[in-house]
Amino acid sequence: MTVALITGITGMVGSHMADFLLRETDWEIHGLLRWRSPLDNISHLTEEINSGNRIKLIYGDLLDDQSINLAVQQSRPDFVFHLAAQSFPKTSFTAPIHTFDVNILGTYRLLQSLQSIVPNSKVHVCSSSEVFGRVPAEFVPIREDTPFHPASPYAISKVGTDLIARFFGEAYGMQIVTTRMFTHTGPRRGDVFAESSFAKQIAMIENNLIPPKVKVGNLDSMRTFADVRDAVRAYYLALTNENAIGKTFNIGGTHSCTVGEMLDYLISQSTVRSIQIEIDQDRLRPIDADLQIPDTSYFRNITGWQPSISYEKTMNDLLQYWRDRILTAATIQR
Predict the structure, then answer these.
(1) Residue pair 245/177 in contact by the 8 Å Cβ criterion
(2) FRET pair for 242, CA 20 to 30 Å: which of 113, 211, 283, 333?
(3) Is 296 within a domain?
(4) Has residue 300 been placed in a domain?
(5) pLDDT tens digits for range 48-80
(6) Which of 141, 119, 137, 8 is nearest to 62 (CA)?
(7) Count of the separate structural domains present in the chain
(8) What is the CATH number of the domain that holds 149?
(9) Measuring CA to CA, how many Å separate 255 from each of 86, 184, 195, 314?
(10) Are 98 and 37 in the same domain?
(11) How far apart are CA 85 and CA 72, in angstroms?
């Protein structure tokens, strides 16, 4: 039986990765999560988890060497999708040391454990497009060899993640693929991210829970959006393609727009027509990555991957996700 270990299985990406592997493979899935992690994103898998049918949960923490060693010993994975991280750039400004510990040292702990216990496993390490940070216009679209200019402690931590993955591959011959995914979103996206925060606020407005006003941060930053369901398919293709092993890839969607234009689209899909926009100073970063437009030709040429879900569907599904959550919460309260 082929075994896959997903770190961060309760996150947006980790939960969609589990869905994809359950649907598209016959692999056994082991999911690493902290004992305190919310289970909302994998609640639809409760029956499979409780029955032990193809999916098993392992409690552990990237901050704890012993728990990582036990998780690797218990699962002995053939494939590893390392998706766990402190992934909120804004939070990293107030908790930089924690962000460095989880993302940099946590990745080191995991790879060191894998190298000692299952050195032949194939490992996907999730870096981030945030490593490129503030990119001069002459370097757009962003290629894999574009210089790093991280614009947050989170981005700095992902530079460390990126380099650690390369180190373990070169020093110990581990089979590692590193991805720098650009903005990816969809159902289950945390509300600390701009598009999900906007969708949640709109859903709350539609249910008369807050006034018809969306609070926002920087609306001028340029982003290229992909769907999380396309992202996990890309990760699977990367890790199961022998020609991709040992390489680092930029991956992203095809729809580029400003954060403000994205907000305009979400508002246009609302049932409320009088929504106003208000700048919230607490939502502004001290410095922002502002031209996140990728060149993904290297990855596409090697794997054949193409995005299959439109920007409009992604945003509509995200908005509907929050409508469903708000409606469920309101029903419970009644």
Answers:
(1) yes
(2) 113
(3) no
(4) no
(5) 999 988 999 999 999 999 999 999 999 999 999
(6) 8
(7) 2
(8) 3.40.50.720
(9) 26, 11, 14, 11
(10) yes
(11) 17
Q: Give the per-residue pLDDT at 290.
A: 73
Beta bridge partners of 223: 257
Please provide residue 104's backbone torsions phi and psi, each rounded to the nearest 5 degrees.
Answer: -90, -60
Tell me: pLDDT of 291 over 90.
no
Q: For the stretch 168-202, what's the b/e string if a residue is b when 16 or more beta carbons lie within 10 angstroms of its beta carbon?
A: bbeeeebbbbbbbbbbbbbbbbeeebbbbbbbbbb
* 9 belongs to a structural domain: yes
- Do both 97 and 245 map to the same domain? yes
The residues with which 213 forms a beta bridge, in sequence order, are 276
| pLDDT, tens digit (0-9, with 9 covering 90-100), for 180-207 | 999 999 999 999 999 999 999 999 999 9
Domain that holds residue 285: 194-222+255-290+310-328
118 and 35, same structural domain? yes
| Residue closest to 16 by CA, chosen among 178, 189, 174, 144 | 189
